[in-house]
Amino acid sequence: MVRYKAIIAYDGTNFNGFQKQPNGRTVQGELEKTLQKMNNGEAITVFGSGRTDAGVHALGQVIHFDYPQERPLERMRFALDTQSPADIAVAKVEIVPGDFHARYLVTEKTYHFKVQIQKPRSPFRRFYAAYYPYPLELEKIRQALPDLLGTHDFTSFCASGSSIEDKVRTIYQAELSVNEDETELTFIFRGNGFLYKMIRILVGTLLKIGNGRLAPDSIPKILAAKDRNAAGPTAHPEGLYLAEVKYAE
After folding, report:
1. DSSP secondary structure code for residue 139 in this structure
2. Beta carbons of 240 and 10 less than 8 angstroms apart
3. DSSP 8-state symbol, 127
4. How many angstroms separate the CA atoms of 205 and 234, rounded?
5. Among the four residues 81, 109, 147, 244, which has the most C-beta atoms within 10 Å?
6. Are 188 and 110 in contact (CB under 8 A)?
7. What is the DSSP string of 215-242?
């Protein structure tokens, strides 16, 4: 068996998330169908660096799988890319050691979250950016962002339904940028890991700060509360992109 690692991108609009489900189209399910065709009908299991929810996109999701024989890398990439559905693209394939694991060896993840703020809203962005029609003071959001940096217990920013007990994570980067015509915001979060719906709750909270319904210095209090009800709402999934996954060398 040869272990392959692949970097994939996908448009999450018509997926019920990454992880395979009995009912519902998923990224993992579609990739496994493709690999089964490539492997003469024999099943192959795909492992992802993490799950993404329904409607969430990826620019740099990482997967691994074991294939019975070694194939030239570009041929393997091309076959996976062209035989998978059009809303999945395979950017890169490489052979990795047999103990590599796409999920368990992750050291860092970067997510982008896009928010459309133009009026009237563009219907062409409706699947690729969350829409926020209310007034925003971006300076207030920028004032709040540094309070997220460092190591904290992010219980307040974790959706109920998560089975993970350890909610301590470290955030290395929390930034906000605006496109040239000021119609779209991009939040960038880079950290050693993120909890269930954490990015979407962070964005919902920061938008509430920008709208003046929470004070710019409220992040430390929300973190200290360790209570989901202390944070803002969960932003819509279509603005979220898994941008990059990193591993120890």
Report:
1. H
2. no
3. T
4. 8
5. 109
6. yes
7. -TT-HHHHHHHT-GGGS-PPPPGGGEEE
Q: How many residues does the structure list for the chain? A: 249
160: CB partners within 8 A, 6+ apart: 228
**Cα gap 10→137, rounded to integer Å:** 32
Q: At 132, give phi and psi (nearest 5°).
A: -130, 105
CA-nearest of 178, 158, 174 to 166 is 158
Please, which pLDDT band fits residue 249 given cuts at 50, 70 and 90? confident
Percent above pLDDT 70 for the chain: 100
Pairing outcome for strands 240-247 and 106-116? antiparallel
User: Model confidence over 68-91: pLDDT tens digits?
Assistant: 999 999 999 999 999 999 999 999
Nearest to 55 by CA among 17, 22, 89, 110: 17
Q: Is 53 a catalytic residue?
A: yes
Q: How confident is the model at residue 161 (pLDDT cuts 50, 70, 90)?
A: confident
- Residue 130's pLDDT is 98
Which domains are present in the chain?
2-95 (3.30.70.580), 106-247 (3.30.70.660)
Among the options 11, 53, 81, 147, which is catalytic?
53
The gap from C-alpha 102 to its chain's centroid, in whole angstroms, comes to 14
User: Residue 171 has which token pair?
Assistant: 């955030």
Q: Is the pTM of this model over 0.90?
A: yes
